[in-house]
Amino acid sequence: MPSEAVQEYTVAQGRAKSFYARYARKEELQHQTHYCPGCGHGIIHKMLARAIDELDVQDRTILIGPVGCSVFTYYYFDVGNVQAAHGRAPAVATAMKRSRPGSIVISYQGDGDLSAIGAAEILHAANRGENISVIFVNNAIYSMTGGQVAPTTLIGQKSTTTPEGRRAANEGYPLHVSELLATLEAPVYIERVGLGDNKQIAQATRAIRRAVEDQARGLGFSLVEVLAPCPTIWKMNPVDAQRWVRDVMEKTFPLGVFRDHTKEAALRPASQPAPALDEIPRLLGLAEEDLPTGNGCMLARETNVDLQVRIAGFGGQGVLLLGEVLAEAGLVAGLEVSWLPSYGPEMRSGTSNCHVRLSSQPVDSPLVSVPSVLVAMNEPSLCKFDLTVRRGGWVIYNGDTFPGDCMRDGVHVLALPFTRLADELGDPRAANMVMLGALLEIDGVLPQASIDAALHRLVKNPRWIELDERALARGRELLKDALRRGSLAKEPCAEA
Ligand SMILES: Cc1ncc(C[n+]2csc(CCOP(=O)(O)OP(=O)(O)O)c2C)c(N)n1
Ligand code: SF4
After folding, report:
1. Is residue 314 domain-shared with residue 365, that is, in the same domain?
2. Are 398 and 479 within one domain?
3. 191-220 per-position pLDDT tens digit
4. Is 336 helix (H, G, I), strand (E, B) or coil?
5. Are residues 199 and 333 both part of a single domain?
6. What total of structural domains would you count in the chain?
7. Counting atoms of ligand 2 from 1, which one is nearest the CA of 228?
8. 472 and 366, same structural domain?
9. What residues are paired with 394 via a beta bridge?
10. Inter-axis angle of helices 462-485 and 448-458, nearest 10
């Protein structure tokens, strides 16, 4: 018979301070996490939150959340949270740590995330010895997506994509990430732990704390691989899943410390700060006479510039060079710039396009999805990107006539046979520079001196420099002519 006396309980371990008191989930789900019973993620979250508490770094911790079952880390941890694209957490962590060296940056990743799509990222972050802590949750499967084979799936283990079990001949051998990374020189601390029983859990708790502590001490790259149960996808009850970690997984993935340079590690020097804008011309090796004077750097920086350009055409038409000259000129003029090339697999005659941004503010994303100017060097590129141009923007098109089905309201159009016009100047391949000349005339922000400096920097052959200068000047004239004749847009443009 149970005693009728009211039993008093003391809570031995309350909620870690680094967890939110309430999960920002739907009202009816606030009482539970989104993890299945017996899931390793919940246990590891708790260890990590405790480590953050004990080291008193909550206020400066940035947790990079992954793609996978633990995608919702930001529901639980009351720290700075950042969500990274699949496998990219180490790159994001690198940027965070370098730009905020005083922060504690933790990359939390599953085995699909870290060892499949993100294999290159983790390898290079470890090889650079980034001063970050990586928590690598190895449950030997892609769980969130329903149980596909992962690089860490055991030989013989069934998955939806290996229904008869993983075979070395087909899927290769389980990837030993900790051992692999321990062959690199830079990492300071690498350990594999498990959640297979209480003893293992106690060791895992210590290891996770240490990985965070090493970073706080400025020592360098640490990674803790945690063998973790996924009862749901393994189709086991939580108790059997925990046993499977200890009795089966551990045979393939032995626990232990694979790297411990904590004692010998010198403090990792803080990464070099980015050079000041005024320093950039010197670092780029630009001579004094290349630099703009008068209305140069300062003017461009003080102007409110936000030019977003998409340049597209066939490979070999000079699409990327056009973008590079524009971006380089922006750089010389003291603007924030980005240049992002994108091309097909073919070396020549494949499609090619690039995104260029020039801004008086730091560029948030190098992608130009809604350009203010589209430079379309052929018809397929025009058809592909025409509809993306923002209202009030410009389309500079290399063609005798503008295809009727691409016509749209509210966009200025300059359609001319730029290749033929360049041919008249001496070489049809200078069409890109004629088009750039027109673009520069539209925008009018960049000082001529910055364009000249960019051209001399990027084009080495004097014959081409001379031809490109004429091509740029011709492009400017063509735009001015068209403006004078009022022949720019078939449809009047409200913002004109
Ligand atoms: C670029 C991209 N490719 C594929 C996916 C689909 N996807 C979501 S989670 C996941 C696997 C995650 O597995 P793992 O890292 O092991 O985490 P777990 O779910 O086991 O915790 C994949 C492939 C995606 N979200 N993004
Ligand atoms: S499917 Fe597996 S990894 Fe995902 S929450 Fe459930 S137990 Fe955890």
Report:
1. yes
2. yes
3. 999 999 999 999 999 999 999 999 999 999
4. strand
5. no
6. 2
7. 3
8. yes
9. 373, 412
10. 140
pTM: 0.66
CB of residue 143 inside a 6 A radius of ligand 2: yes
Atom 5, ligand 2: which residue's CA is nearest? 35
Q: Which atom of ligand 1 is nearest to the CA of 139?
A: 20
CA distance 436 to 325: 9
- pLDDT, tens digit, for every residue of 349-408? 567 899 999 998 899 899 999 999 999 999 999 998 999 999 999 999 999 888 877 777
What distance in Å separates the CA atoms of residue 236 and residue 249, rounded to the nearest whole number? 14
Q: What is the pLDDT of residues 262-317, one digit of tens each?
A: 887 776 666 666 777 777 777 877 766 655 543 344 444 456 889 999 999 987 89
Q: Which of 210, 231, 260 is the last residue of a domain?
A: 260
Please state, in angstroms and rounded to a whole number, the distance separating the CA atoms of residues 118 and 121. 5
CB atoms within 10 A of CB 363: 15
Q: Please classify residue 418 by burial: count the beta carbons closer than 10 Å to its beta carbon, then call 0-12 exposed, 13-18 middle and 19+ buried.
A: buried
Residue 235 and residue 285 in one domain: no
Question: Distances in Å between the alpha carbon of 227 and those of 136, 178, 205, 242?
Answer: 9, 12, 13, 10
- Pocket test of ligand 2: the residue of 136, 139, 153 to mutate, having most ligand atoms within 8 Å of its CB, is 139
Q: Do residues 62 and 190 share a domain?
A: yes
* Structure token digits, residue 132: 């970050």
> Same domain, yes or no, for 115 and 241?
yes
Q: DSSP 3-state assignment of 196? A: coil
Residue 256 lies in a domain: yes
Which CATH number characterizes residue 448's domain?
3.40.920.10
User: Burial letters for 277-292: b for 16+ Cβ neighbours within 10 Å, e otherwise?
Assistant: eeeebeeeebeeebbb
Q: Which domain holds residue 137?
A: 27-260
Contact by Cβ (8 Å): 86, 113: yes
Q: What is the CATH number of the domain that holds 186?
A: 3.40.50.970
271 falls within a domain: no
Q: Is 69 near ligand 2, meaning CB less than 6 Å away? A: yes
Q: Which residues line ligand 1 (CB under 6 A)?
A: 67-70, 86, 110-113, 139, 141-145, 150
- Residue the block writes with tokens 């009018």: 444
Residue 219 covered by a domain: yes
Q: Are residues 292 and 252 in the same domain?
A: no
